[in-house]
Write a structure and sequence with these properties.
single chain; about 290 residues; alpha/beta; Nitrilase/N-carbamoyl-D-aminoacid amidohydrolase; seven-stranded mixed sheet; six-stranded mixed sheet; 7 helices; binds ligand LQR7VSFR; C-N_Hydrolase; EC 3.5.1.3; C-N_Hydrolase_sf
Length: about 290
Amino acid sequence: MAAHAEATSSFKLALIQLAVGSDKATNLSRAAEKVREAAQNGSKIVALPECFNSPYGTQYFKDYAEEVPAETGQPGPGAGESCKALSQVARECGVFLVGGSIPEVRKGKYYNTSMSFGPDGALLGVFRKVHLADVNIPGKLRFREPDVLSPGNKFLSFDTDWCKVGIGICYDLRFPELGSIYGLRGCKLLLYPGAFNTVTGPVHWELLIRGLAANNQLFVAGISSAQDLTASYHAWGHSMLCNPWGKVVVSADEKEGIVYGEVDLSEVDRVRSHIPVTAQKRWDLYSITDKTST
Ligand SMILES: NC(=O)CC(=O)C(=O)O
């Protein structure tokens, strides 16, 4: 009965392609406004982009960094302003909220950190970007997150009322091992807040999202900030949801907006029954080992 209920369940997902500026308070209040709009339009899971409260760039991370609670559950009075704002709007709207990412400071180290909240405002868990962006394309683009950030050492998957969701951040898309691990954990939806750029984005963003979805036969969404050609970093935009067949269900252009997609979980089982690769793994020949705990 439970399996049937899940097999037929479907829900609306909202990807908020936010225009991010240099004022943190404005970024937070505009993000909350968009979460309210997405909830009013019937979304059950809402996701924000990478670095939604600060401009993207190694020169900004330290100035915008906040502490993130060490414990899950309702954030205490000492929680940072972004954590409090996200928790509050998730509770007000009764949605699962994947809070994009923010620069975090913890014991003198900096991280690119995503916090996820339940509909009661409780912090469900944090994901610190595991693979840090290291891009050097001579004459075109250079940025190295490892110059400032430390990598996270844990993955994050959590249960919603419909399915288990796995979280990665941007450059993590380049490492299909993470998607495989979430697939093995039973996730049916992967959410990657991101900020690809106008050099790598046109070639790699959609390709990586679709590849991850097709290889693991599950839903994958990438959530970008909007493109701003006056900023020092030109985010690619093009937030999108891809289905387990590897097809783009819905996508944005480069401008600010909310992308809505219907996640019909029965598609996961349908695609897996049509082409049973998830049941054909040759674990006698190779392995994917999850060395972390949830
Ligand atoms: N910003 C990133 O983390 C990644 C990126 O832009 C890229 O891989 O290209």
